[in-house]
# Entry
Amino acid sequence: MDKLAASLVLKKGREKPVVNRHPWIFSGAIERVEGRPEPGDLVDVVGKDGRFLARAYYNPHSQIRGRILAWDADETIDETFWRQKIERAITGRAALALEPATTAYRLINAEADGLPGLVVDKYGDFLVIQCLTLGIDRRKEMLVGLLADSLNPAGIIERSDVSVRAQEGLPEFKGLVWGEPPPSDWIVRENGRQFGVDLLGGHKTGLYLDQRENRTAVCRPHFVAGKEILNVFAYTGGFALYAAASGAGPIVNIDSSMAALTLAEKNVIGDGWERPLDEYIAGDAFEVLRYYRDEDRKFDMVILDPPKFAHSQRGVERAARGYKDLNWLALRLLRPGGLLATFSCSGRVSADLFQKIVFGAAVDAGRDVQIIQHLRQAPDHPILLTFPESAYLKGLLCRVW
# Structure
């Protein structure tokens, strides 16, 4: 059992988010720290009057000083606690009945599953974990053991090679942490479609699992059959594969990584689709789109699935400019009646702000744009009502005139 080392005493009037079960304690909410906790230790969170509010793990090096694990003073944070949280998350995913058609999905979604800082994705017989906070990193060996006991995977890979670790005072890390390594050409299934994934070298944990339902929604046959499609930030071809399966015309795939595009083409062909007219272009997306604009090239659908543009609140304004420029360029490339599928995975950019950004791009491009569907993350990436930050992926499917 973890030893309780200290208490975080909140400033007067700063208790409400904790009472409302938001799992983060920011540095500015803390009046003082009682005791001498080490980074990663458990602490009680108390009001200025000494009243118990929650129990969290602590990191003095992060702007988020505490991440709450429990709101019950009688709850013990021991190995049993972690096991029960893991098993609850696994039970929730089993209720979605994704397998056997889908063998790659999220098992644990950090704060949204009551396990702040821990992400676990399942890729068939392999698990990929991300330890995003110091509190989780300190308990990694135990958590890996619990995951191995609960799921008996062939291997567990850690992909903690993400920049957010620096905010926790942690170095990036990736590698095998349990069992055997995955084959370099590991195959998973998504909605019955076949994908090759690079679990050790790909983006995130190997595949953009949160876009699963959106790939289906955007690439329905009546939207894409026979249509010319521009797939920007294509990565390993998720949208391209679905579009090909629905009878799309030529698909132009753009990504900064030639290795990702090579796997994208392999995925499309491996799922049974011969596509001699498709293009795979490695380059800067903004530069390629500007080139197509200058060449007056047109498409029937443009898909924009960029990486996170805003990594902090300070970066939101710059991210907004990037999203607006990107969407403005896409709108210039669409034929009348064409479709724009545009996304943002920046949690700091709200759905309302993102819609306003696309509105601004439409006005500047002189196009009439109708939203025909709002898009969001897949259900294996649940959104905790008391933690709106967990609703990070937002998208719009638009008709453009």
Q: What stands out?
A: The domain at 79-186 is CATH 3.30.750.80 (Transcription Regulator spoIIAA). The longest strand covers residues 334-344. The chain is about 25% helix and 30% strand. The chain has a mean pLDDT of 95.
